[in-house]
Write a structure and sequence with these properties.
Immunoglobulin-like; about 750 residues; disordered N terminus; Rossmann fold; alpha/beta; binds 1-deoxynojirimycin
């Protein structure tokens, strides 16, 4: 047993000190005060109302249709923000309407800039596989620059939901299963979007979402109930949100799910106590699309009026598209059910961010036609997303060094419905990018090899004309393309097969119960393998897939996700060895869907192995291994990286130093993500068997060896107890280091 517990509220826990990042600018506060003093109750409520634009719905149409009097409400100051309005001309038009209001308060213009605006980066899950924080920050900056040049000043990103369930379509939008990696990436993205100065017309406000626990939707079904304990909430869900708040994120979005019986939109513990209270957050919280109205079907509110009351009391400052604030807040204040001080506080928060964006100095700050013409899709942006795409690719298997391919001398057949597709690589969440704007694998391979390639789709991408994007299923019946593909494979020395999910098979509302390679693609793969064993499988997908069969039978597998605009160029550079792949999985890949949720940082349980439970009575499946197919942190390159000489020593106070040697055993220079995990062996609340606590991406030339050092202190070795306090408990710790979460060197250390 541990002898004592140290509670560290000042730094990590309930933190009653106001941190530096949340301090407000006195000059701006004075302006906000002066404006609020002139505002009527209705005008304050107006700021709390957000309308969808005139096209481009990103949620269900509100009951009763779109607000009929949108224009009038804009002119009378009853709208604080619009979403889904883009392009300088359009933004200027709505801003002009808003400025006709009595106090001429400008709108803040929001948009889902999730992985780029028109020039697309890889989907966020793919970017997370790079473990390259500088590249991720640069990618967010590119997205901000293009969006800002198009009139937008607020993105609904980063999405920082931890998720362990590959069935959930929105895993593509986050950073995977780990809170430590997720927290680092959350901060990098916020810094990329917001830069150092929010009033710079090329930076935009970030919106951290979805607060909170949306990624734990039961059974991976979008919008489903969340039922997690406090330990998971504090240790797994909240850390990336807190990191984003600490990085200065100016807005948060709440989430559709309930947690502990209270929908997040009406959850005062999350929004008032933790976010605005303990974390000292001074920005504002926007609801998710219609989530205030959804308190009714949740069964928490009897009608829209009660929904508005519950949401505003719980700390939701702005209503996205449910109109319940607009329709009910005034009478709720007049009847005393809502304190006017809460309305003033919400309006204050919204106005503060508008002042910080410089919108009061110049409401058209983001409306510059010249910038719009020159700052979207330029060569710097293309280069940034290409670099990001290369770094996001994960090499999963490479038997007998089948890769890299020579650029000449071998006949290559390129097969698969995604091989020449210029839309799927764009991925989900790309409302401002046009179909067909990605570089395909075919184009990339021809460009980098200088050769024309034989190309056979094998199966069609879709069957029939889908009525709606969710019906975009990959062809399940038409095998007429098989013969040509198989024949092409027979004549080739090597076959590259590009298979996976269409770009819109992941994202919001796109959960899947089966997470294999969809449609006839697996059948096609088997037919090709039967005639040519030299197959390189390039996967395009927005979630971990169950590829047990492929992992056993295909000699080389490249996880290429949905890589965005430069997809084909990045993939070609990896296939031909112009870039040595360095990505590591941010989410475990299951062997079969029955293992989901599967994640590396699980608990031990009381019966973790056969030794304790005999043949039957231990925690296992009778028909499947407990282990993932590919674990968190896994990824190989063209050079083998060898680990040795782990040394763990005590440092000052309760800190420890971890050092490990890594050597590039290959003939090519390469990068390696050196990962450090801990296991707190005995604690007052059970701890995961492994927790990532540090990592560094190092470049090593061929044959080079390097000792990489890390320091871990109480801020890494502790955890949140069930009261939300950060505690450090001295005792025994297993310290592990390696190139993924399974293959590690380990050493035990006692901290007394
Ligand atoms: C609903 C999604 O959950 C959210 O992430 C998005 O930002 C809004 N719709 C606006 O499109």
């Amino acid at each position: 047993m541990k002898k004592w517990i140290l509670i560290l509220p000042l730094i990590y826990g309930l933190g009653w000190m106001v941190p530096a990042w949340s301090q407000t600018d006195p000059a701006i506060e004075a302006k906000v005060d002066a404006l609020l003093a002139r505002m009527t109750l209705e005008e304050k409520i107006g700021q709390m109302n957000q309308y969808n634009g005139f096209w481009n719905f990103t949620g269900p149409a509100p009951a009763g249709g779109e607000a009929a009097n949108k224009f009038d409400n804009l002119k009378s100051g009853m709208v604080g923000s619009m979403l889904n309005v883009r392009g300088v001309e359009n933004v200027r038009k709505v801003q002009e309407l808003a400025l006709q209001s009595r106090l001429h308060i400008p709108l803040i213009i929001g948009f889902d800039v999730i992985h780029g605006y028109q020039t697309l980066s890889p989907i966020p899950l793919a970017e997370a596989a790079s473990w390259d924080l500088a590249a991720i920050q640069r990618s967010a900056k590119v997205a901000a620059t293009e969006a800002a040049a198009s009139g937008i000043n607020w993105t609904f990103a980063p999405m920082v939901d931890i998720s362990r369930d590959a069935r959930w379509g929105r895993v593509m939008e986050g950073a995977g299963e780990d809170p430590f990696l997720g927290a680092q990436i959350a901060a990098a993205r916020v810094q990329g979007f917001q830069g150092r100065d929010l009033s710079d017309p090329l930076t935009i406000a970030a919106c951290v979402k979805h607060f909170a626990a949306y990624g734990f939707a039961e059974a991976g079904r979008d919008y489903n109930t969340v039922d997690i304990g406090t330990s998971t909430l504090y240790n797994m869900v909240l850390p990336p949100f807190k990191a984003a708040a600490n990085a200065g994120a100016r807005t948060f979005m709440n989430s559709f799910n309930e947690i502990n019986g209270i929908p997040a939109t009406a959850n005062a513990l999350l929004q008032r106590d933790i976010l605005k209270g303990q974390w000292g957050f001074t920005g504002f919280v926007v609801s998710d699309w219609g989530s205030i109205g959804e308190l009714i079907p949740h069964g928490l509110a009897r009608d829209g009026k009660q929904a508005a009351e519950l949401a505003v009391n719980a700390g939701s400052d702005m209503d996205m598209e449910s109109y319940n604030y607009l329709n009910h807040l005034k009478s709720l204040v007049e009847s005393g059910q809502v304190d006017e001080a809460l309305i003033t506080d919400a309006a204050r928060r919204i106005l503060r961010v508008k002042f910080e964006l410089g919108l009061f100095d110049d409401p058209y700050r983001y409306c510059d036609e010249e910038r719009e013409r020159t700052m979207i899709g330029n060569s710097d942006e293309m280069d940034a997303v290409l670099q990001m795409a290369k770094k996001s690719i994960v090499l999963l298997k490479n038997e007998n060094a089948l890769l890299p391919l020579p650029k000449s001398g071998k006949k290559v057949a390129l097969i698969g419905p995604l091989a020449a597709d210029k839309t799927s690589p764009l991925g989900s969440w790309r409302p401002a990018a046009d179909d067909g704007t990605a570089i395909s694998v075919l184009e990339g391979m021809e460009r980098y090899s200088g050769n024309r390639l034989m190309h056979y789709p094998g199966v069609k991408l879709f069957e029939g004309e889908p009525a709606f994007v969710t019906e975009l299923q990959i062809n399940e019946t038409d095998t007429t393309g098989f013969a040509a593909a198989v024949n092409g494979a027979k004549q080739a020395d090597v076959v590259v097969m590009v298979l996976g999910e269409h770009g819109l098979m992941t994202g919001e509302g796109r959960s899947r119960a089966f997470i294999d390679i969809p449609g006839l693609q697996e059948e096609l793969l088997k037919a090709v393998l039967a005639v040519n064993s030299q197959v390189v499988l390039v996967l395009m997908n927005g979630r971990p897939l169950a590829i047990d069969w492929e992992a056993e039978h295909v000699p080389a597998i490249v996880e290429a996700w949905h890589l965005g605009t430069q997809s084909g160029n990045a993939i070609a550079q990896v296939l031909y060895g112009d870039y040595n792949p360095s990505g590591k999985l941010p989410m475990s890949f299951p062997r079969s869907v029955g293992q989901v949720p599967i994640y590396y940082n699980h608990k031990s349980t009381g019966r973790p192995d056969r030794a304790g439970g005999g043949m039957v009575f231990w925690s296992h499946y009778n028909d499947e291994s407990n282990d993932p197919l590919y674990p968190f942190g896994f990824g190989i390159g063209y050079s083998k990286m060898a680990y040795s000489d782990l040394r763990v020593t005590r440092g000052s106070g309760n800190s420890i130093t971890v050092q490990v040697n890594v050597r590039n055993m290959g003939k090519l220079a390469g990068e390696e993500v050196v990962q450090v995990y801990i296991h707190d062996l005995v604690a007052s609340v059970t701890r995961p068997v492994k927790e990532l606590k540090a990592f560094e991406k190092v470049s090593l030339s061929a044959g080079e060896s390097r000792t990489v050092r890390f320091t871990l202190d109480e801020s890494s070795l502790g955890f949140y107890n069930n009261d939300g306090h950060w505690v450090f408990e001295p005792g025994d710790f297993m310290i592990m280091a390696g190139g993924n979460s399974v293959d590690v060197l380990q050493e035990k250390i006692t901290i007394q």
